[in-house]
Amino acid sequence: MNHRQKLAGEKSNAVSKFFVYLLMAVLTAVIVVPVAWVFMASVKQNSEFYGNPFALPEGLYLQNFADAWTKARMGDYFFTSIMITAVALCILLVVALPAAYVLSRYKFKGSKLLNTCFMAGLFINVSYIVVPIFLMFVSGDKLVKRLFGHSVFLNNPFIVALVLAATTLPFTIYLLSSYLSTLPKDYEEAAYVDGAGYFTTMVRIILPMAKPSIITVILFEFLAYWNEYIISMTMLTDPNGARTLPVGLLNLMKAQNAKAEYGQMYAGMVMVMVPTLILYMCVQKKLTQGMTIGGIKG
């Protein structure tokens, strides 16, 4: 009887593993096939799309990337995305690191209220507030133009970076606070005995210990900023001005007298995807470990 139960259990485990592997294979195909198709389409000539769109390319037509980089201004948009992402990350870290440290390590009057406010920000989708932000900036620009004669808030990459950092601040503080709260306070007490102040203790003792969580924040928010569309599309309204890569993809359909240049369009998509794919492949282990540490332990 025990032998039969053992065989039945092994058979049940084998069936379960089969369905798990089958599901994983299907999910992998759903993700990999479209990405591979975009890469394949990016090296096709435009005439090849009017036949079988799933056919292999006749050759490597790399001119699509050159046309997308120059004619569709994807090169300008690429550097704009880099600048906005870098500035937004700097602003986010400068604000979030001290805030998370104080809220997680100290109790003071109003600390619970601040924590509640930041936690409430986790449930606010940027799509719900982007229009009020835009209208507020329009009103601000009208006032600024009266005083100085030029616009400040709209079509300004720095303002876009500031808004991106502000909208991701609640999640970042939550993630960092969850990790910092798990660190023993013995390290801080030893630093205070040695004469270190609050700022020195945070910079030299606590933040180096929180490196896994900080790396997770940098990587996660880089992906979010790099692929962001709604805020950039709303705040950067000048068609001849600065725009990010996701927004710049819209210009690919207008290239060459509004003719649909599919090769250029998919080449632009590849330009958007490649940095994030390379970054994720290089640091996927650290990203997963950091999110597990910051989320579960907290």
Give the SSE layout:
Layout: H1 2-41, H2 63-70, H3 74-105, H4 111-121, H5 126-148, H6 157-167, H7 169-180, H8 186-193, H9 198-209, H10 211-226, H11 230-235, H12 245-252, H13 255-258, H14 262-296
Helix pairs in contact: 2-14, 3-6, 3-7, 3-10, 3-12, 4-7, 7-14, 8-9, 10-14, 12-14
Can you describe what's shown?
The chain is mainly α. The chain has one domain: Orthogonal Bundle (MetI-like fold), CATH 1.10.3720.10. It has helices at residues 2-41, 63-70, 74-105, 111-121, 126-148, 157-167, 169-180, 186-193, 198-209, 211-226, 230-235, 245-252, 255-258, 262-296. Mean pLDDT is 81; it is low at 294-298. It is built from 14 helices and no strands.
Descriptive terms for the model:
298 residues, mainly alpha, MetI-like fold, 14 helices, globular, disordered C terminus
